[in-house]
């Protein structure tokens, strides 16, 4: 009888040990599988974030419609012996050139870093205005800003939008006047015609527009007057009474305009405000003030670079952890 009890005891102990060993090994395998899954998900999210960052960098130097095409071609297994040329011709495009008048005067009273900050705040506002008025910003050249409307998407109101853009830019320079206490102003020129738009370079890409009409738009700006929006008769032909104009005689001040046979005009009155805007006492007032700008102070006072970097890092880290936890829980069935 004692032999039977001892045998049963040994059998039970052996079975328990076998079960514990099996459970331990299974637990190790599950932990390993969990860690492998976690590592795979981390790598997946890192790759996704790197891909998003590459897309943001691409969009910072190229328009979206060009960046999408180039990214598709870069991702395909095409023979790189022949480089694809990204060029397209667009008709009926309004080209706007704007230059800061009197910028040299404030250059002697402010440091280089302060000037860069002022220009950055001003051009950031211009970019928001470009988005509002459906403009495609082409380039910033020193204190010169130029953009187009009517490309890549054709639209019949390109001249109307470009003029409102120019008027808003003249209004925006008032913030710099208040901040620097100097008589800076904007000189805006607009011409309408055909452009050839495309990307140049193989390593350092640059999107730009080229044509005789682009050169004429530049001359429209240089022959204009501070605080005025200077348009050509070609641009005027695309308007339908939205604005009142007065002769500007820019062709008498600029030989290129005279050689092209163009008459020029200044915008003197707005008859049709942009959607949401209102006219009070002959002045156009925007429906909503520009964000990140304090009307009482004049110019935005953004968060310093170090603070902004810390906020972005914290937000990105929190977002990464939340997505990782969500994916892990969905894959492992946790709640």
Automatic annotation (TrEMBL):
It comes from the Eukaryota. Residues 94-221 form the Guanylate cyclase domain. It is an enzyme of class 4 (lyase). Its main location: membrane. GO terms for molecular function: adenylate cyclase activity; ATP binding; metal ion binding. It catalyses: ATP = 3',5'-cyclic AMP + diphosphate. Its EC number is 4.6.1.1. It is found in: Membrane. GO terms for biological process: adenylate cyclase-activating G protein-coupled receptor signaling pathway; cAMP biosynthetic process; intracellular signal transduction. It is a multi-pass membrane protein. GO terms for cellular component: plasma membrane. Residues 1-23 form the signal peptide. Keywords: ATP-binding, Lyase, Magnesium, Membrane, Metal-binding, Nucleotide-binding, Signal, Transmembrane, Transmembrane helix. This is adenylate cyclase. It comes from Apolygus lucorum.
């Amino acid at each position: 009888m004692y032999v039977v009890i001892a045998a049963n005891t040994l059998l039970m102990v052996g079975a328990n040990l076998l079960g514990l060993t099996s459970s331990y090994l299974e637990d190790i395998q599950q932990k390993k599988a969990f860690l492998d899954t976690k590592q795979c998900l981390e790598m997946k999210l890192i790759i996704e974030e790197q891909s998003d960052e590459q897309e943001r960098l691409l969009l910072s130097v190229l328009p979206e419609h060009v960046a999408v095409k180039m990214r598709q071609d870069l991702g395909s297994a095409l023979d790189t012996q022949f480089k694809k040329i990204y060029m397209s011709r667009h008709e009926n495009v309004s080209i706007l050139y704007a230059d800061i008048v009197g910028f040299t005067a404030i250059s002697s009273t402010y440091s280089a870093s302060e000037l860069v900050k002022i220009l950055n705040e001003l051009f950031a506002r211009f970019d928001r205005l470009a988005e509002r008025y459906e403009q495609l910003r082409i380039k910033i050249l020193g204190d010169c800003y130029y953009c187009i409307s009517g490309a890549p998407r054709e639209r019949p109101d390109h001249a109307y939008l470009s003029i409102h853009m120019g008027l808003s830019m003249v209004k925006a320079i008032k913030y710099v006047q208040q901040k620097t206490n100097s008589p800076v102003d904007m000189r805006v020129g607009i011409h309408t015609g055909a452009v050839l738009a495309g990307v140049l370079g193989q390593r350092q890409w640059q999107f730009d527009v080229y044509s005789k009409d682009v050169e004429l738009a530049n001359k429209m700006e240089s022959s204009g007057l501070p605080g005025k929006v200077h348009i050509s008769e070609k641009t005027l032909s695309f308007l339908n009474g939205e604005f009142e104009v007065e002769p500007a005689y820019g062709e008498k001040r600029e030989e290129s305009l005279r050689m092209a046979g163009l008459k020029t005009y200044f915008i003197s009155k707005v008859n049709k405000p942009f959607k949401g805007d209102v006219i009070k006492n002959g002045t156009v007032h925007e429906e909503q003030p520009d964000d990140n700008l304090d009307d009482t102070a004049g110019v935005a006072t953004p968060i310093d670079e170090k603070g902004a970097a810390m906020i972005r890092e914290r937000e990105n880290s929190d977002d990464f952890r939340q997505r990782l936890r969500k994916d892990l829980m969905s894959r492992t069935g946790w709640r």
